[in-house]
Each structure stands twice: as C-alpha cells, then as structure tokens.
Amino acid sequence: MKVLTASRTTPDTHQRGEAKVARLSVEIPVTKKPLRKPSWIRAKAPLGAGVARIRRQLRAAQLATVCEEAQCPNLGECFHRGTATFLILGDRCTRRCPFCDVAHGRPLPPDPQEPAQLADTVARLGLSYVVITSVNRDDLRDGGAGQFADCLAAVRMRSPGVQVEILVPDFRGRREIALKAFAAQQPDVFNHNLETVPRCYSQVRPGADYQESLALLRAFKARYPQVPTKSGLMLGLGETKEEVLGVLADLREQGCDMLTLGQYLQPSRYHLPVQRYWTPEEFEALGAEARALGFRAVASGALVRSSYQADQQAQGVLA
C-alpha cells in the first residue's frame, strides 16, 4: 500500500501547484505541452522492502524528508540504499518558489522533540552519514538555525562518529545570528544551494538574493574555515553555459569546496517549465571545467541532486 506524507493529503494547509504559485509577483503560465523527456532521464520507481522500511520509520517518528516532499527522482534508489535527507522545521515552507514541490503554508512552531526523534531514527537506521535540510522559516528570528544546531548535537550524542551535512536556506537577513548557532559544534559539510544563475533569480527564487547567498557561503567559510562548503545548481531554466561558468567562478571566490549540477524537472504543469534538457556530455564537460576551477568534489549529471550520494561525494574531501 502506498504511504502518503501528511502534506500530500492536506491541501488546505499545504499548498502545492496552482495554489502555491497563485500569489507570486511573477506570472507562471500553465504549461500546456511540456518538453518530452529524453532517454537519459530515467529514475527507479520507489518500490521494494527497503523503501517501505524507511517510510515506516519516518512515519513512526513523524519525520519528513525532502526526498518525498520535493518528489526527488532518486527516492527509490536512496531509500533502497538506506539513505534519506531529513527535512526539519516542519513540511510547510514560508516561500512559494515556482521550481519546488515542497508545500507552502503557515508553519507550526519548531518542535522541541524533533532533535531527539531525528537522532533516534538515525540510530535505528544505522546511518553513518546524515544530511539534514529544512524548509524556509522566514518567521523565525534565526531562520531556523538553532534547530539545525540542536539536531546536529542530538544526532552526534546519540550516534558518535556519524558525519552530518546540513543543507540550509539563506536565512534571509539573519546571516550573522544564524551562523552563531554553530559556534559550539559545526557540521562536517555546510551546504547552501544557489540553484540558478543571477539573471533567473527574480523568477526562480522570489524572495532570495544571489549576492546574499554568496555572502552566506563566504561568511560561514570565514567563521569556520575547517568545514568544507558546498553548493548546487539546477540546469534547464533558460541559463547559458557562460552564465553557469560565471556562477562556478563566483562560488570558488567564496572558497566553496564542493559542487552539484543537475537537471531541473518540472513537478507539475503549474511550475516553471523546463526550457531544455542538458545532455550527459554537457554535464560531463561542465564537471570537468568545475574541477579545473578547483572544486575538490564535483557531481554533475542529469539526476544529480544536492544530497544525492552525498556520503560518497564527501569521502575524499573529509578524509
């Protein structure tokens, strides 16, 4: 039997698709005829005992994953391998980004039990590498950074030796407050995605700012230089190769160590349409250029996502 997350059964509180983008300042035309997916865009169906086991553990602990909330194409593969990217601070985002399938809605207060529940689930699953991310929480004074820090501490206390990567939002206007939350202990990898090129920001990431995102990566590296930093882009939203290379150069100027490049896939006809599909050869060439720029770890491919095989990507850098 298919197990649905709560956010997909409560549209009144969790807005998606048409309801989510209806109040954006930029108009997103309904896609009538999407581009046909090429042969290299193929993902495993989220089936099997391994997938069911992970989902049971998540539902029992009342935890969410970005894998499920954002309809990641790699969900079947990752859950089968026993890996997941945990989504903290609820399953309702305060923003309405038209590329993302995470629900928009009025969020609940942070759950004080969430760090312990997350730590227990990580221990039960026997994970050695954990990725923790969150929805945008523009309603919180620290943008949710304190909850990240509490989850980080709880996981390490319950499972010493576990490596933790955090994939954070931009903490809009709260950068200094947010970064202080990690003074006691830092993650093994600090990840913040730029998502797209500067020209596309107003449409792709309304409410975000390209320079602010760069400043977050720069400020974290300056405060905690021993921690590798990471970022990612999704391609297919109208950007050019030259623009992508410009973003890679900007990331290297901030000291960014790790990079992911993947193909954008439209979650519904109400989201931003795919402008084009980048070929495997183009992803391979971009990966080579990124390594030449000095990135210590690069994952570049159509189905690559920011936390896809994150443990494998981090091996060489953390060693």
Which terms summarize this structure?
8 strands; 319 residues; 12% strand; alpha/beta; eight-stranded mixed beta sheet
Description of the molecule:
- The protein is an alpha/beta fold and 319 residues long.
- Helices cover 36% and strands 12% of the residues.
- It has helices spanning 17-21, 49-61, 66-69, 75-81, 114-125, 145-158, 175-180, 201-204, 210-223, 241-253, 280-293, 310-318, and strands at residues 64-65, 85-88, 129-134, 163-167, 189-191, 229-235, 258-263, 297-300.
- An eight-stranded mixed beta sheet has the order 1-2-3-4-5-6-7-8, sandwiched between helices.
- The longest helix is centred in the middle third of the chain and has 14 residues, at 145-158.
- The model has no long low-confidence stretch (mean pLDDT 90).
Helix content: 25-40%
The SS-based structural class is alpha/beta
Which shape, going by the Cα principal axes? globular
In percent terms, what proportion of residues is strand? 5-15%
List the helices and strands and how they pair.
Elements: H1 17-21, H2 49-61, E1 64-65, H3 66-69, H4 75-81, E2 85-88, H5 114-125, E3 129-134, H6 145-158, E4 163-167, H7 175-180, E5 189-191, H8 201-204, H9 210-223, E6 229-235, H10 241-253, E7 258-263, H11 280-293, E8 297-300, H12 310-318
Parallel strand pairs: 2-3, 3-4, 4-5, 5-6, 6-7, 7-8
Antiparallel strand pairs: 1-2
Helix pairs in contact: 2-4, 2-5, 5-6, 10-11
